[in-house]
Amino acid sequence: MHRLSVLVVLCVAAALIQGCSQQIMNGSSLVIKEIAIAPKSVPKLKEEDLIDLSPYDREPTEWGEQVKGVKTQMQTNERKIALTFDACGGDHGNGYDEELLLFLKEEKIPATLFVNERWIHANEALFLDLADNPLFQIENHGTHHSPLSVNGGEAWGIPATQSPQEAYNEIMQNHDTVKGLTGREMAMFRSGTAYYDEVAVELAVNLGYDVVNFDVLGDAGATYSGEQVKNALLGSQKGSIVLLHMNQPGSGTAEGVKLAIPLLRDQGFEFVLLEDEILK
Ligand SMILES: [Zn+2]
Q: How far is the CA of 269 from the centre of ligand 1 (A)?
């Protein structure tokens, strides 16, 4: 955030702060004044939140899961694996894999949870319970679960954000929701579908985020059988980041994780949180 020049306002709370677009025309000092008198329910924007999005209004050249700037592994020579579980939210994604989470808790296995705002709203008590557990690191899986782009496109049939402003909102609306509920300032982002263009990744980085994908596809969108999940996990190497899901209780994910973890431990692997490691 500090690396950005503070120039023009982002109308993050445009729907809530009336007259915002008018105030933009009048200069940044007036904008800050306007926000200061916003209703209590609107989070106050600090001066450093007012960022210039114009540098990101340009044509990207990459689109995918491993574009420039995306981290996919931990930098280590030790036998460390980071398990990451997405909670995607939405009509078919608001579930909670109780068997999986119970196993992680009982076995004291740390995991990084990438949580979408829709899932949080559908499971607020559960979310607060997970956020309160030091075994788990809560990170950002977006607001609407959109692929992150500055100019549209799609992944797996899901439309991407269409502008720098939409990309900003996709990251920061959920950021503010989690901060409001827990006080936590999330610092790692994985988009819905894990697709990005490299300009949107640059925007996320300048908002203070690491963009974190994976090198082990653990459950293929929670479509794998338990045996397939186990085999995928057994392909982990030193520093692997594994992508799994915690929102599909009918899937093979819990079974595969329960099968693989004792075997990985026998091989000398330990499980770590991403926040304790250097990513690459
Ligand atoms: Zn997801």
A: 26
